[in-house]
Amino acid sequence: MPASFGTEALKAQAVCARSYVYRQMASEDYRDYHAQIDDSTNYQVYNKSEAVDADIQAVKATAGEVMYLDDEIVNAYYFSSSFGRTSNMEIWGQKEADYPYLKIKSLNASDRSDRKMDLSDEKDFKNYIKAKEPDVFDSGSRYYRWQAKAELSASVKELKEKIKQRQEINPDHFVFYSTAKNKVRKVSSLKGFGGVEKMYCSKRGKSGAVLVLTIRFEFGKVEVKSEYNIRSIIGCAMEQITYADGTTDTASRFLPSAYFSIAFHEKSGRYVLTGGGNGHGLGMSQYGAAGMAHAGWDYKKILTFFYDGVQVENIAGTGKR
Q1: Interior/surface letters 131-161, b for 16+ CB within 10 angstroms, e for the rest
Q2: By the 8 A CB rule, do 199 and 81 touch?
Q3: pLDDT tens, residue by residue, 269-286
Q4: Distant-in-sequence, close-in-space partners of 165: CB < 8 Å, separation ≥ 6
Q5: 217 CB neighbour count, 10 Å cutoff
Q6: pLDDT tens, 147-197?
Q7: 303 vs 100: CA distance, rounded Å
């Protein structure tokens, strides 16, 4: 998190990171490696940025503080920036009830309690993503709104390779159907599927995230689940993305988020994805925290907004683990 995000945002980040690491230490997933986490997307990513004084002061000011719900340290997921909403565990196909502190939240500073929070309907989501609300805490991020163009037909080889790669990693998140001879049946591979015909969202979550992406081929179709798989697969066919600040990128091969609508442009033969946010959308938006800090929120208010019902406590004085 950049030092420019403000002292209170940096404190919130410090408590999140500490909570997350303590939680992972307890799981002992990397015990065989004498480690608790790595620096990949599996563990929130760590880019080895150079430490500055503001970071050090934020860590010292919150020394030992973590977030609890009852007697358990919460899994403090965080991400770069939202499109105006956060998500819940539906994005990874897990039970929402198992993570009661991770709820869908609106980052509109002047939001009303009666605002419609369910964006699972395609029309509702498209209307929302086309709007640019000025009071959203993280609207200063260039990822707040973006538009990407993807050409699937010319990328069919790369597309199939990426699907195969991700399916080997997450077999439960992919379902292959053969439609040859007008018979629909489950199969184990993309063999004989032919060229790409269509891509569409077949299930959208309450948070607005695409939960199931369907890619239809000449003689088969693939259903893809989980936001990372969806972003990775579409990314390999992405030609250009334009951000909220007007800048463009033609080298990116990973979609910023799974919060997007899909339209097909007949004349160009391209899919146009209108979306927002950067990251999985679960827990604390770092840009949102920055907006809150600049609005005068302290770090505990920021944390208890993003993580419902938690308490910030010093682990040394609680006797808890």
Answers
A1: eebeebbbbebbbbbbbbbbbbeebbeebbe
A2: no
A3: 899 999 999 999 999 999
A4: none
A5: 23
A6: 999 999 889 999 999 999 999 999 999 999 999 988 999 999 999 999 999
A7: 15
